[in-house]
From TrEMBL:
UniProt xrefs under PANTHER family: DNA DAMAGE-REPAIR/TOLERATION PROTEIN DRT100, L DOMAIN-LIKE PROTEIN
Annotated protein name in UniProt: Piriformospora indica-insensitive protein 2-like
Cellular compartments annotated: Cell membrane; Membrane
Similarity remark: Belongs to the RLP family.
GO cellular component: plasma membrane
GO biological process, one term: response to other organism
Membrane topology, from the record: Single-pass type I membrane protein
Signal peptide (residue range): 1-22
Domain of life per record: Eukaryota
């Protein structure tokens, strides 16, 4: 992003180089202030987006005298001329920002120094698709945000995977369809991928595990199906994963024990013991999923864990979290809505937290005591139900088909600087 100081430096350069305000400011003694092709390319791009009819007339020198709030330029090294580095279009820059027939011009290809392209709330009426050839040679692009464009439809082009410099790709709240191209997994510099709130379908490709720099992955609110890819567990820098509101199914992959943060939904099966290796975990929300099995007691030994919500699952057996842990969390520990969960008789008498509304394990019909609670065995639960799974009536609604459960679990981690 061009800083205002760079901008001033640029203006200073011009004054020094030209000595006086020339009539033709596009040219200085060493050549053009801007390459003509790039300038014309910018005019095309802006003109095809904005309502303002004579963009080129109103902004003849967009990098210097007649700036546009959403356009930023920087001076290149050799030759020292201006290049367009940022185009941002959105309601914060102009209202209404775009014309009804707004589209992305192919002239984008004439802006090879562009590092940031962000277009918000622009394509509202005219149907716009992302042309596969549009981004091919934008070799400098680092930040691509096309958000809240209801008439931006079609597929996410595979060709986006060729922009190896990309660090942020946010295509959320559009109307994109089709699969997530597996080629995107080749974007090794990508730090944030947000495809949330579209109409994407198919499975999340395993190739997504190739995004080695990824810290944030948000694929929530689409029509994605199938399992959560195990390869996500290999991404060492991942801090937040949100897969909520899809039709994903499956269990929490044990590899997620490597993650700092995770947020997804529709998951069933046991809570993997490996979560307890996340020593920096501060908050773990697995509420309103379809998790089964016991609560791993090791969660209670996570030194930084300060919030644990396991409510509304199908967890069972005795709650074996330490009394000290339970007291420390107080109401930030929520295990309500697990009808087969129980606490030891001693603990239940102590009335520690109203969010521990679980019966005592002993002496209650149909509820197991502490000695018969099964050990946590994450991968042995496949298809096998604890013996008390059947034949117990519950006041809760019938269990949903696990494929269509639409809520979330969220893991946050303590930032290292905290
Ligand atoms: C989402 O995409 C499917 C095809 O994959 C289509 O049938 C459906 O109408 C789309 N939904 C919306 C809201 O556009
Ligand atoms: C736990 O999650 C449920 C939603 O599933 C929510 O109603 C409840 O307030 C949460 N508990 C805490 C302590 O945040
Ligand atoms: C437990 O808490 C309830 C209200 O929260 C109270 O009425 C009851 O007396 C408490 N029981 C004990 C044993 O402290
Ligand atoms: C089970 O509970 C009884 C009393 O409630 C206690 O004496 C015993 O130590 C507990 N066993 C285990 C394995 O926690
Ligand atoms: C739990 O998820 C269901 C949908 O699966 C939703 O209707 C309900 O509101 C959620 N409950 C809470 C407390 O979030
Ligand atoms: C936890 O945080 C510390 C810094 O506080 C950091 O050095 C360490 O790598 C983190 N551990 C994990 C598993 O993220």
């Amino acid at each position: 992003m061009a800083s205002p100081s760079l901008f001033l430096v640029g203006i200073g350069f011009l004054v020094v180089a030209c000595g006086a305000i020339a009539v033709q400011r596009n040219v200085d003694e060493t050549g053009m202030v801007m390459e003509e092709g790039e300038l014309l390319g910018l005019f095309d791009v802006m003109g095809s987006l904005l309502e303002e009819p004579g963009w080129a007339d109103v902004h003849p020198e967009p990098c210097t005298d007649t700036p546009w709030p959403g356009v930023e330029c920087e001076i290149g090294q050799d030759p020292p001329i201006f290049h367009v580095t940022t185009i941002h279009i959105g309601p914060d820059v102009a209202t209404p920002p775009c014309k009804p027939s707004a589209k992305i011009s192919d002239s984008l290809l004439k802006l090879p120094y562009l590092r940031t392209l962000s277009i918000f709330n622009c394509f509202v009426t005219s149907q716009v698709t992302l042309s596969p050839t549009l981004f091919g040679s934008l070799s400098s692009l680092e930040h691509l945000s096309l958000q809240s464009n209801p008439s931006l439809s079609g597929e996410v082009p595979q060709s986006l995977a060729k922009i190896s410099t990309l660090r942020v790709m946010s295509l959320s709240q559009n109307n994109l369809q089709g699969n997530i191209p597996l080629e995107l997994g080749g974007l090794v510099n990508l730090e944030q991928l947000d495809l949330s709130y579209n109409n994407l379908s198919g499975e999340i490709p395993e190739d997504i595990g190739g995004l080695k720099s990824l810290t944030i992955l948000d694929l929530s609110s689409n029509g994605l199906e199938g399992p959560v890819p195990h390869s996500l567990g290999q991404l060492q820098l991942l801090q937040k994963v949100d897969l909520c509101s899809n039709r994903l199914h499956g269990r929490i992959p044990p590899e997620f024990g490597q993650l700092n943060s995770f947020s997804a939904c529709g998951l069933m099966g046991p809570i993997p013991n490996s979560l307890s290796s996340l020593k920096n975990l501060t908050a773990l929300s697995l509420d309103n999923n379809s998790l089964t099995g016991t609560i791993p007691p090791s969660l209670g030994s996570l030194p930084n864990l300060d919030q644990l919500n396991l409510s509304h699952n199908k967890l069972s057996g005795e709650l074996l979290l330490s009394e000290e842990f339970i007291k420390r969390l107080g109401k930030r520990l929520d295990v309500r809505g697990n009808s087969r969960l129980c606490t030891s008789y001693q603990l239940s008498r102590k009335n520690i937290s109203t969010y521990l509304q679980t019966p005592a394990c002993l002496g209650t019909e149909g509820i197991v005591d502490n000695r018969t609670c099964p050990e946590e065995q994450p991968d042995d639960f496949k298809g096998r139900k604890p013996y008390w799974y059947h034949g117990q009536t519950s006041s809760r609604a019938p269990l949903q088909d696990p494929q269509f459960i639409s809520t979330c679990f969220v893991l946050l981690h303590a930032l290292s600087f905290l």
